[in-house]
Amino acid sequence: MKRINNLIFALIILILVVGCSVKFSYAVLTRTPRVIFEFQYEDARDFHDGMAAVKLNGRWGYINNLGQTVIPFNNRIPEPGNFSDGFAFLGDRFVNYDGDPAFINDDNPDVKYFSGGREFSQGVAAVQYGGQWGYIDLLGNFIIAPTYQNARSFSEGLAAVMNNKGLWGYIDFMGNLKIPYKYIQAGDFREGLARIKINGRWGYINQSDKIIIAPAYYEAGDFGNGLAPVRGRNNYHGWGYINKSGKMIIRRRFNYAGNFSEGLAPVAGDSRYGYINVRGEWEFSPFYDDVRSFSEGFAAVRQENKWGYISQ
């Protein structure tokens, strides 16, 4: 009888443990990330082209993937740009890896200033000039005149642009309108699909402007590793992940969900952030106060009010 009671007690404990691990799986540490650069920055961005923008004493600078300061902390600007194709938009101009103004040579000794700029992608960058957006090449010359109210970077051969009615469409490298202006918001093409917003809901189209996943989500992210984060309910823990057929692969249970990159996605179980794999399993349990996606092997993470970098 005593043995039976012990078995029953053990079974109850097992059920409780399993139940808790399902409901509170975010509390179980599966792997320990490597802290590469210690928590010392006021803010930090992703690595691109081997460089990352970081903030100290209210000023932005750039470090390389060895943690060495490459561009000094001299820039009091709201938001630094990512390096791509050798340049980053910093304040009102593009700079090179040394922090010097780009596009300057003997034939063109003057700095080219812009009101706004996106990172280079596929050899071109969106810039704001004279109140309008257009696109420049790697020499700083306009290849698509500034005629748009807003513009995103090129991705997979197309770029989202906004007309003077506040609607978004997509153009090619020649400036030809490939997808008509009809979307309230529009994202970049990733893995063949782009998120678009119609009637207050997000869905996904292909490059032929065919709706592949019907607009049904309150919020949505980009596809990565075959999955995209979506929030299907306007409530707590409403984020999950769908595949390119629109099937929910990782069930809705997150308070926040970011894009997959390098096999991991940043998510929040409640108020703390960690990373899951494509099976929805915790790789790094929620331990951080904020996180960014992995890029070039590193991810920026925040503990209390300081940012650092981890690796897998």
Per DSSP, the total helix count is 1
By secondary-structure content and strand pairing, the structural class works out as mainly beta
Question: What is Rg?
Answer: 23 Å
Quote the average pLDDT. 91
> How many individual β-strands?
30
Shape, please?
flat
The main β sheet shows up as:
4 strands, antiparallel
In order across it, which strands form the biggest sheet? 1-30-29-28
Uncertain regions spanning at least 5 consecutive residues: 1-27
Query: What gap, in angstroms, lies between the N and C termini?
Result: 50 Å
Q: Helicity, in percent?
A: under 10%
How much of the residues is beta strand, in percent? over 45%
Offer a quick outline of the entry.
The protein has 312 residues and is mainly beta.
Task: Give the topology.
Elements: H1 2-23, E1 34-41, E2 43-44, E3 51-56, E4 59-64, E5 69-75, E6 88-90, E7 93-95, E8 116-117, E9 125-129, E10 132-136, E11 142-148, E12 150-151, E13 159-162, E14 168-171, E15 177-183, E16 185-190, E17 193-198, E18 201-205, E19 211-217, E20 219-220, E21 228-231, E22 239-242, E23 248-254, E24 256-257, E25 265-268, E26 273-276, E27 282-288, E28 290-291, E29 298-303, E30 306-311
